[in-house]
Specification:
The complex is a heterodimer of chains A (about 120) and B (about 500). Chain A is an all-alpha fold and about 120 residues long. Chain A is built from 4 helices and no strands. A two-stranded antiparallel ribbon of chain B has the order 1-2. The chains are: A mainly alpha (about 120), B mainly alpha (about 500). At the A-B interface, helix 2, helix 3 and helix 4 of A face helix 6 and helix 7 of B.
Chain lengths: ~120, ~500
Amino acid sequence: MFEGGHFPYWVFIFLMMTALYVVISRDNLIKKIIGLNIFQVSVIMFYIAMGEVQGGTAPIEAEGVTVFSNPVPHVLMLTAIVVGVATSAVALSLVVRINEAYGTIEEDELREVERGEEA
Amino acid sequence: MSGGSAAGLSTHLPALQIAVPLLSAALCMVLRRSRAAWVLAMAVAWSSFASACVILATVRRHGVISYAEGGWAPPLGIELRVDLLNALVLLVVTAICAIVLTASPRSLDQEVWPEHHSKIYSLYLLCMTGLAGMTVTGDAFNVFVFLEIASISSYALISQGTTRRALTSAIQYLVMGTIGGTFILLGIGMIYMVTGTLNMADMAARLAAVGPNRTVLVGLALIGVGTAIKLALFPLHIWLPNAYTYAPAIVTAFIAATGTKVAYYVLVRFTFSIFGAPLAFDELRLDAVLMPLAVAAMFAGSTVAIFQRDIKRMLAYSSVAQIGYMVLGLSFVSVTGLTGGLVHLFNHAVMKSCLFLVMAAVLLRTGSVRIEAMAGLGRRMPWTMAAFVVAGLSMIGVPLTVGFVSKWYLVLAALEAGLWPVAVLILLSSLLAILYIWRVVEVAYFEEPAADAPEVVEAPISLLGPIWVLAGATLVFGVFTSLSAGTAAAAARQLLGVGP
């Protein structure tokens, strides 16, 4: 099952599905955001795994370095990490504001309050 | 660059579409004064629009513009690549940005604290950067980065609404939007794995050489789902009605007319230009998934819209239906169908931003956008409501309006493909549009205002001007279709590789 260097991909799939489940099933907004973070991290892992070359070293210019990992996915993921940080920052500040405005960050309670407002 | 400074500058226009709004966004933050920030944003938005016009004219005359960013030659360097398709989308996006921004000061004065205005304009420009970037770039990973720039700034913009519901709507959109964006990132990763390149043209060439394989198909499916979330394709539209309802009126007019349109462009670009129609529609049968969903969106969106008492929310659900029409056009996989989809992108942007600006005007004068507040407005705000009627008729698809042009192409494409039941469904769903537009017209023109209703006067000229520019556009482009339908048809032929 893990032969052929597929182990990182299994981990990535496991993380991704766990994260998606967390986002869907949890009502607490902070937990949802944690799920979202894991979701993004799983994709980052996927890219890093893809850049790996068996027996390769870090992509640096040095004596005796002939086989090295593909640096492009690593660089792409630097950008993706920044995107993830920005998303989390916006999400967390929204949660703070929601807590101030509603006094709760549980989605089921928020829904109840909002249903009450509509009626 | 060679040539005089003017000629030198014009070759950089695609890059300036990104760089100027991005840098000005930071400047807006520093300016702090509301009106100063607005003037700067206006200058940026209108000059972006002007340069988008120049770009479209250049592409029509000389063909595809390819711009090597930083002088690094593609496919290794990042390329900005503008052909007819994205030149048209860019024109729509920048035009709507500029027109909505022109209308913004009075409406924002009402809905947002003055000290936040400069931040709003800054976010507005950032969102514009993201949308323009997604449109002009020829690099797949760039699409993701710009998508997130546009998305994150729109989450922040939506959360600025007056009620606390704006906050929960924004976070709901954030969660779904991030999942969508990450799916797209994953899909791009899958293609990169197979092709080893991020340049779109290079990807297309290598994918054609590789042929169908499972990684590629999974990549396509992921990108399809990701863009469907961003596009708010039924049943992934859950974030849209709340976001549009509770955002400030100006933000709604801006995002409703640009955000989903650019997502549609991304879907078209990936399926037709990168994967190619044979792979996307013969191997994966994307059309068999998209067509039923599009038809479901047309009916579900319009039906729910009929029962809304909040008119902004009604228009939001109508957007879900209109997105259905656009996707339906794509799912025919024919030149006529794709033309219909693209021309509807243009047309829907014009009429929906007009309708949402009317809502901004109504909110400004009556303090509410619920249907009760519309009573008697036909006489008290005649010009505003007349614009609503014009754009509303276009929504239904009455001849001489832009809505008719799009539906004409869509029905034609359905008949061409031998799918006459779909043609009937398009017409039936238009009947639903009559119902929800008529509700508002009836209340506005044939009902007396409540006795305790506040005195209402016509909207200020700063709002009425942009509203009528857009309402005029729905009429003008309903008759003279060479810009919208002509360009869309040419772009569709390019995408499907049929004739010139």
